[in-house]
Amino acid sequence: FNSILLYIIVLWRFLLLRRRNDIFHFCLIILAPRKVASSPHHSFSISPPRSFASPFYLTLYKQKNFAMWLRTIIFLVINFAALGIGGLFTSKGVPSQWYQNLNKAPWTPPGWMFGFAWTFIMISFAFYMAYAWENIAKRNLLIILFAVQWVLNVAWNPVFFKYHEVTLGLVVIVSLTVLLGIFVFMFYNSMKYWTLLVLPYFIWLLIASSLNAYILFKN
Question: Is the pLDDT confidence value at 54 over 80?
Fold first, then answer.
C-alpha cells in the first residue's frame, strides 16, 4: 500500500510540471516504453529529462516496474469505477422484494462473497491489463475488448436489478463471459502465466451466468 501511495504522489508531482516536452516524454515512456526505446525515428533521448534530475526522481525513474505500477493504478481506477456504478443498482436491487422472491440457484454464494470476489477480480484484472498493455502487439484490439468488457460489466446491473430483464441480463452476462474467454485464450501466447490473473474473472462469470440462467428458467 505504501508503494502504491508513493507512486500516486509521484504521478501527481509529474502532472504539476510546467514543461510540456517533459510531460509528453513521460507519457510516452509510460504508455509505450518498448516502442519509444526501439524506434529509430525518435528525436529525444530515453534518459530522464532535466526536470527529473533530482536523486529522488532519478531513482524512481530507473525502476523497471515504474511504468507498470502507473498503468496498474490507472486500470484500478477504471475497474473500480465500473464496480461503483454497478453498486448503485445492486445496493437497491438485492434487498428489493422482487429479487428476494425469486427462486435462486442452490449454489448462490452468500452476499458478502460477491463484494469480496469482485474486489479481488478487479485488482487482478488491473494487473493483467497493465502487463498486457505493453506485451500484446494488437493494442487496438486490446483497448476495444477492454472497453466492451467495461460497458457489459456496468450494463448488467441496471438491466437485471432495475429493469428486471432477466433474459436480456443473461444475454449480457454470457456475452461478457465469452469476451473474457477471448482474453484467456487469444492472448495466452503473449501473456503466459499472467493469464492466471484473468482466470478468476472468467470463472466467476461462468458462475454468475449459471445463476442468471437458473433464475430465468425457474421463475
Answer: no
